[in-house]
Amino acid sequence: MRRLTLSIVGMSFVACAATSVATPPSPTIATTIADARGTLAQASTARSPAGPLYVSIVETDMGRAGAITEQREPGFELVLAGSERIRVGTASPISVGGGQAVFVQGDAVTRFESDGAAVSYFVSLRPAGSRSRTLAAGRRALYESADLPPAATPPGRYQDELVLLVLQPGAAVPPHMHGGIEPTYVIEGTIELKIAGRALERLGPGDGDTVLPDTPLSITNVGSTVARVLVMLATPEGRPVQSSASPP
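^ that's the sequence the OP posted. Answer follows.
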């Protein structure tokens, strides 16, 4: 598990309202993570934290874990390979294939299952008091941020979005900033994350960082292969999802 310190920053894309499980809006159907790019899922959700939250990314190997029935905090389920069936409460199950994601509101017990081997990530903001949880066989924490300051996750409604950046060697995301937090996790490749007021940071596979609102940043693929970078945006309603910024 990688745990990195917080950055003061954001990244960007536009979110919109959704139901308890939001289907992916991608224009093409992905079958593996290599086929996916852009916005994978988006939703409107409410948060009223009683204490600090932290960013959590948990990997599940369904071949080892088997079916899982639990009530989770709101978050995104991203299937990297294989396929899953997800049933929220008494609703009909939905199928999620490789490279696809859904948003789970966390307001009911949810069952996750697969007919064979499937690997998925669950990306969420968890209460800091839940940090000591024990994960079952087949599950492991890939990334946990430090506790987020309360001002970064105020109570209210949020526009959440899960995005996969696919950057060719030398490609860059130009300077910008966000109105909400932005966890960033590198699945593949090597990037440089430049944040205003901080030293240049190089991140490779399995590395992550969480950036707080309103700080300029830019991202560059400095490797010799494609970089795949998973980004979650959690933007309080009324705040800009993204705005332009001077170079950090």
